[in-house]
Amino acid sequence: MKKISILDIYKQNNHLNKLITINGWIRNNRFSKIGISFLTVYDGSSTSTMQVIAKKILCNYFTEIVKLTIGCSVLISGYLKLSKGNLQTYEIHAIHIKVLGWIDNPDIYPMSAKQHSIEYIRSYCHLRPRTNLIGVISRIRNVVFQSLNQFLNKFGYLWVSTPIITSIDTEGSGSMFRVSILDNNNANNQINCIRKKNEFFKKKVFLTVSGQLTLESYACALSKVYSFGPTFRAENSNTKKHLTEFWMLEVEKSFSDINDISVFAEQLLKNSIVDVLNNCMSELLFLQKKVDNTIIHRLNKFLRINFIHVEYTDIIDILLKNKNIFDEDIFWGKDLSSKQEKYLVDNHFKSSVIIRNYPKKLKAFYMRLNDDNNTVAAFDIIIPRVGEIIGGSEREDRIDYLDHRMQEIGLNNKNYDWYKDLRRYGTVPHAGFGLGLERLILFITGINNIREVIPFPRTVGHADF
């Protein structure tokens, strides 16, 4: 007897009138006085559920089946039939039901059948995947993850696992988490002093804010590479778009400049949207009903309209001409606010925007200095609802320029000596970018808070589970 998923039943369409077995969890149990129970079962493979008809002739009908509550796990064997009801296509006429796991106390089960707020289910991150909303988001996240990997593989990019523990500050911002085996609250200072002399890595180390610098070393040997993994920012930001732990896709390409890498970034973004539209339509229809009634139209529009390339200087001119809209200072050399980004994509351009050539003081030391000596060959991609989703640049491949930039911002040259070796030994022009996975999922799903698009959110004051 073949064990299949609910998704298989709807995709393969060749199981009708056959004996099948499914596993899943109870979402609802209605039973009649004449001895028939109607079980609604889900298994997480799709938005679809399966209605199961269980009759009192089953040996455990009165001892177990009528006692099933939401959340109980079951194994069900039976014949797949076309449903006579209007709410589902198929139903299973059970010949055997085995209860695998009970809910200890249904009255206090946190994921009960009643409507719960997003904030409520967030406090039960270990149980919230059982809700329709988080299940839908999780399946979309998986498709996006696979899509990004497949797209890069198609174009010959090699995956490189860059280190999570690092001794360098990629962004030069200092907002990093320290990694240590020391107990700084230990009252015995003498023990602490001994430990400090024998620090595990013999130096201060941190959780990485970016794998870019180490990834560059592989780009300067393998030409086209990428990394994909968790990164950490110790910024005290508690907005709906910030996490302290998040997933970053980072791409590096040798013999490349700002023009081709920014175009490639746009192609990668749009390809992921195409894959979601092709593979997650039932999830999108669920979100269209529950979260964003424009979601399918919005994603298709995103694909149709080419991104607009514009200089940072021109952006400032546009904002100055409309300064009456904003309650903040606008001048050349200042970073864009989220309100300004929103105005640019929603009102002025009515399109996603690639902003290029930022003032050097706004960007990291490794970005290539332009001939004007005031700007760097950097770009940000700004999209609706989210704002900045990709940041990238040409990398500074001239060692004397790199040295000067590091001195300007006060970095310790010794810590980056290996990085300068890439410029000493066969330097090449190269470029790259970073994409925040959660921000992409935020845009696709239309969810308002980034905490819902990562399984276990880490934010200021919150590191549960």
From TrEMBL:
List where in the cell it is found. Cytoplasm
The cross-references to InterPro entries, in alphabetical order and at most eight, read: Aa-tRNA-synt_II, aa-tRNA-synth_II, aa-tRNA-synth_II/BPL/LPL, Asn-tRNA-ligase, Asp/Asn-tRNA-synth_IIb, NA-bd_OB-fold, NA-bd_OB_tRNA
Kindly state a single biological-process term from the GO annotations of this entry: asparaginyl-tRNA aminoacylation
Q: Which UniProt keywords apply?
A: Aminoacyl-tRNA synthetase, ATP-binding, Cytoplasm, Ligase, Nucleotide-binding, Protein biosynthesis
Q: What is its EC number?
A: 6.1.1.22
Q: What SUPFAM superfamilies does the annotation carry?
A: Class II aaRS and biotin synthetases, Nucleic acid-binding proteins
Residue ranges annotated for the Aminoacyl-transfer RNA synthetases class-II family profile domain, each copy included = 139-455
Under catalytic activity, the entry for this protein gives:
tRNA(Asn) + L-asparagine + ATP = L-asparaginyl-tRNA(Asn) + AMP + diphosphate + H(+)
Similarity annotation: Belongs to the class-II aminoacyl-tRNA synthetase family.
* Quaternary structure and partners: Homodimer.
Q: What is this protein called?
A: Asparagine--tRNA ligase
- Origin organism is Buchnera aphidicola
Q: What is the lineage of its organism?
A: Bacteria, Pseudomonadati, Pseudomonadota, Gammaproteobacteria, Enterobacterales
